[in-house]
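Example (one chain per record):
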Amino acid sequence: MIEVKELSKHYPDKVALDKISLAFPAEKTTAIVGPSGSGKSTLLQALNLLERPDQGLLSIDDLTLDLAKPLTNNQILKVRQKTAMVFQEKALFTHLTVLKNLTEGPIKVQKKSKEEAEKKAFELLEQFDMSALSNRYPYQLSGGQQQRVAILRALAMQPKYLLLDEPTSALDPELEAQVLRVLKDLAAKDVSMIIVTHNMAFAEQVADQIVFIDNGQVGYAGPSTAFFHSENARIKQFLGAMSF
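Predicted structure:
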């Protein structure tokens, strides 16, 4: 489980996170939702220290860090060994094939053998019906294919938690559906995922837990079903804005 307590992040002109306390269960899918600029991405990136909070406690399984104190490189490494991030932008290595995109991290960072890394990569490609793409370069892929490869590249590192920051926001509806099917498959396999998304239909269908962030504070944290049937005025206003 990932847990944060009293997590805060201040910018000169804004409070991005205001004493947030949350738990993200393992082997569950949590969707972080809320209006633009509410602090969703800041929260997600704080979970693997891409964003460094000003204060608060961050716990990942048996590791707990006091974020008000300086962190060592070893502490940061331990956090990032348990997590992998997928962003809006695919950010693949443009000079490498799909297969080499999937094996670069395990070989260079985790010091795995080429044979072991390629075995895992081919397993992932086959699992998601993408074996035919293994020798293609990113420029030869559609946007949806690139983002699916980005997800598999993160999975190739075998993280305990997969963090996704609006992974479909730059895609058209057809390509978005391709990526969401992959995420739905992962959720069905009990992969631990934390996803920032604006797609409420996807969140309602796939998420076990919803975290609603509003103005840097937690407006709701709990089961998906209860969120989408909430009588809370602010939640109803937010969900109502999604339809027209």
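Caption: The first strand starts at residue 2 and ends at 11.
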